[in-house]
Amino acid sequence: MSKQITVPFGPQHPVLPEPLHLDLVLEDEKVVDVIPTIGYVHRGLEKLVEKREYTEYVFIAERICGICSFIHSQTYVQGIEQIMGLEVPERAQFLRTIWGEYSRLHSHLLWLGCFADGMGFESLFMNAWRLREHILDDLESTTGGRVIQGVCKVGGVRKDIAPEKLDEMLKGLKGLEHELQDLTNVFLHDSSVKHRLVNIGRLSREDAYYLGAVGPTARGSGLDIDIRKTGYGAFNKINFRPVVENDGDCYARCAVRAKEMFTSIDIIEQCIKKIPDGPVDMKVTGAPDGEYFSRAEQPRGEVIHYIKGNGRKNLVRHRVRTPTFTNIPPLVTLLKGCELADVPVIVLTIDPCIGCAER
Amino acid sequence: MTFFQMTKTVIKSLFSRPATLMYPAKPAKKTANTRGHVSINPAGCITCRSCQRKCPTGAICVEVKEKTWEIDNMRCVVCSACVDVCPTKCLTMETEYRKVLTARGAKDKFTVAGPKKKEPAAAPADGAKPVKE
C-alpha cells in the first residue's frame, strides 16, 4: 500500500464561491477518502423566526440564499398559506411561477459560467454571464431587485406585470433562446469541454437514490425526480417534461442544466400565454396555527421548509433543508476514486451553495 | 464542427462594445421599479412609527417626542416594506443606488413635521368629500 497524504481543499479555493472544506485523503494522485466539513457561515436565520412576525420573515427567508432567493420566499409563503388555508389568486400563482423560472434561468447561467471558469474556459464563462444579464434586467424591471426580488408576500405577490411588459419579456426570451443555443452547443459539443467532463465523477442511479441526491444531480443519474411535477404554484396547468440524462457523469449533470434552461423558457412562455386577469394579492388576517412541510424545486433541487405556528404573530419553528445539504453525501461518493485534478470540476457539478446549506 | 463552435460569438464580440458598464464612473442601469434607496419627505411624516414596526432589520428609528426620523443605511436592505406601509406616502423608493459606505454608523436623521394638529386635521376631512363625489 502506498503512503497516504491528506490535502485540505477549501474553505477558500478559487473554484469555490462559498466556504466548504473537504479533507482529501490521497494515494498518489487518487482520492481514496473525503471528509467534508461545513459550518463556516452559520448565521442562525432559523432562530430569527421567533423574533419577527411571520409576514416580515418572508424577507429573511428570501435572504437564505443569494441565487435561489425567490424560490425560498415562495416555498416559505406557500407553507404559511397552506397552514392558514388561503386561496391565493391565480394570477399571483402564475406570476410566482414566471419569476421562479426566471430565477432558475439566472441560476443555471451563473452555474454554467462558474463551471466554465472551473475547467479553465474563461471566454465561455464571460459569455454565460453576459447572457445572464438579460435575465437579471427582466427581473429588475418587473420586481425591482436583480438578485433579491422581494415580491412574494403571504397571500399573493407585491407587484403585477403589465400585459405589454409580458409581451416584451416573451420577445426577449425568443431572442435569448438563439444565443443560449449557441452557448449550450459549446458546453455539449466542444471537444475540449467533453474531454474534461465525459466519464468523470460517475454516480450510479442506485447511489443517487439511496444517498438522497436531488435536482440536477439526481436527474443526471437517470432519476426522474422533479418537485415541479407535484403541481405547486401554477405548474399543474403547465405541460413540461423534466430533463433526465442517464450517464451520471459530469457531462450528464452539465447537460441537464443546459437543457433545463430551454424547459424554463418553455414554461415561462406557457405561463405568459395562460396567465389570467385578476387581483394579485388578498387580505390576510390572523396568524398561522399548525405545521406544514412546504416543498419546491429550486435550481439545485428540492427544498423543504418546515413551518410551525401556534396562532400568534411569531412562528414557533422554521427549519429549512436545502438541496446542497442533501447533495453532500453523493458528492463524497463521487469524489472517491477520482484524480486530484478533477476534484474542482466534480465539486462544481453538484452546484454547491453553502450559504444555503448552513443559513 | 466541434472546433468552431464559438467563432460566431467571438466575431460578434470583436465588433461590439463591451457588455459591462464602468460603474460608478457611469451611472448604473435602472428601471422604474428599481429599489435604490429610501427617501423621506419630512413635511409629510406624522411619526406614526408604522415603518419602524414593519422594518425587518430594525433600520428605522422614529422618535415621537423629538420628532425625528432616522435610518441606518448599513442595516437597510431596501425591501420597501416601509414604503408600502406608510399612511401618508411620505416615504418613497428612489431608483438610484446609494454611494458605497466606508464606515459604520452612516445614519441619516431628519427632523419631521410630526402629527398634525386638530385644526388642520379637520380641514382635510371636509375637503375629502368633494373628492369622493
Your description of this structure?
The complex is a heterodimer of chains A (359) and B (133). By secondary structure, chain A is an alpha+beta fold. Chain A has one domain (42-358): Cytochrome-c3 Hydrogenase, chain B. Chain A has twelve helices and eight strands. Chain A has helices at 57-62, 69-84, 90-118, 122-143, 163-189, 191-197, 205-210, 215-219, 250-274, 323-335, 343-349, 354-358; strands spanning 4-9, 21-27, 30-37, 152-153, 156-157, 289-298, 301-310, 317-321. The longest helix of chain A has 29 residues, at 90-118. Chain A starts with a strand and ends with a helix. With 133 residues, chain B is of the alpha+beta class. Chain B has a domain at 38-113: Alpha-Beta Plaits (2-Layer Sandwich). In chain B, 25% of the residues lie in helices and 17% in strands. Chain B is built from four helices and five strands; from the N terminus they run H-E-H-E-E-H-E-E-H. Chain B has helices at residues 7-14, 50-54, 81-85, 118-132; strands spanning 37-40, 60-63, 68-72, 91-94, 107-111. In chain B, the strands form two sheets. A three-stranded antiparallel beta sheet of chain B has the order 2-3-5, with no helix packed on it. In chain B, strand 2 (60-63) and strand 3 form a beta hairpin. The longest helix of chain B has 15 residues, at 118-132. The termini of chain B are far apart. In chain B, 16% of the residues are buried. Mean pLDDT of chain B is 79; it is low at 120-133. Chain A binds chain B through residues 52, 56-57, 59-60, 63, 123-124, 127, 130, 133, 137, 140-145, 148, 150, 158-159, 182-183, 185-186, 189-191, and chain B through 1-3, 5-6, 8-10, 13, 19, 29, 31-35, 54, 56, 77-81, 84, 93.
